[in-house]
C-alpha cells in the first residue's frame, strides 16, 4: 500500500480475474495535531453500480460526477465494510461488464472530506472488448481451472433448462431420484447462502472466524447436513419444496446464462470461494438489476406452479401406495401364515393412517 504522494487524496485500484482490491491512504491532520488523534479519523468507502454492459461515455461521466462530493457520495453510494485484515483496504467481488464507481470519505469530528473517485468495468473495455464475453466462455483459468467451450456451454445450459422444466412439471412422478439429489443440493445451497451472507455482507459485525477457510467449510458442511436431515425427516414437504425451488432455479440459471444476468454469480461465487485467494475477505453483495429481478419473479412463478400443481401430492402418494402394495404382496406370497388376503387391505390403510 505504497503511494507516490505522501498524503494521497486518491485510491489505488487493483483488478484481477475474480476480485477488486481498493486501497486508500489515511487522511492527514493539521500539523498541530498529535499522533494519538490520528486514530479518530475514519475512512469509509462507498460504491455505485452502473447498468450492466453500459459503456457509453455519458453514463461514465454521469457516474463519476454523482460521486464527487461528500453529499453526493452519501446520497448515491452504497457503503462497503472495511476488511478485517486492513481498515484501509476493501476487497470486492468482481462483476464483469458492470461499471462501478468507488469513492471514500474521511471524517474527523464534524468535518468530512471526499477522496477522488475511481472507476472500473472489471476489464479494459478499450483494449480488450472481447472480455465482455466472460460468462459465455469462462476464459480465466484462475477462476474455474479449466476453459469451457462456448458451444458446450450453450448445450449444457439448454440441457439444464430441459431438465429443470421436467422437474418443475413432471418431477413429482419420480420421487426416488429427486428426493436424495435435491434434498442434498438444497441443503448445500441454503448453507452457503446463510454462512456466506452472515460472514461477508457486513464484515465488521460478523465473526472473523468465518473468513478462515478451515472454519468456514466445516460450518458450511455442518449446516448442509442439518438442513438435509430436517428435509429427509419430512419427505413429502421436502420433495415438493426442493423440486419447486431447485427445478425453477435450474431453468432460471440457464436463461440467466443467455441473458448475461448476474444470477449466474450464485454458482460462480461458490467456485471462487473454493479456488481464489483472498476471496474469503471479499464483499459478495449481488447487484440486482432489471433483468435479474425479472428472472427472480419468473423463478418464484415456477416454484408456485410446481407447489400448487393439482397432481403433486396425489401422484406422490399414489406412487408410494403402489410401492407399498407391491412390497407387501411379495411378503404375503412368501409367508404361508397369511391365508386371508383381505386382511391386507386393512394393513395398507393403517399404514397411511
UniProtKB/TrEMBL annotation:
Topology in the lipid bilayer: Multi-pass membrane protein
GO biological process: negative regulation of programmed cell death
Keywords: Membrane, Transmembrane, Transmembrane helix
InterPro entries attached to this UniProt entry: TM7S3/TM198-like_dom, TM7SF3
PANTHER family (UniProt xref): TRANSMEMBRANE 7 SUPERFAMILY MEMBER 3
Organism of this sequence: Vespula germanica
Main subcellular location: membrane
A GO CC annotation given for this chain: plasma membrane
Transmembrane segments: 93-109, 152-172, 179-195, 215-233, 238-257, 293-309
Domain TM7S3/TM198-like: 213-307
Protein's name in the database: TM7S3/TM198-like domain-containing protein
Lineage top rank: taxon: Eukaryota
Subcellular location: Membrane
Organismal lineage: Eukaryota, Metazoa, Ecdysozoa, Arthropoda, Hexapoda
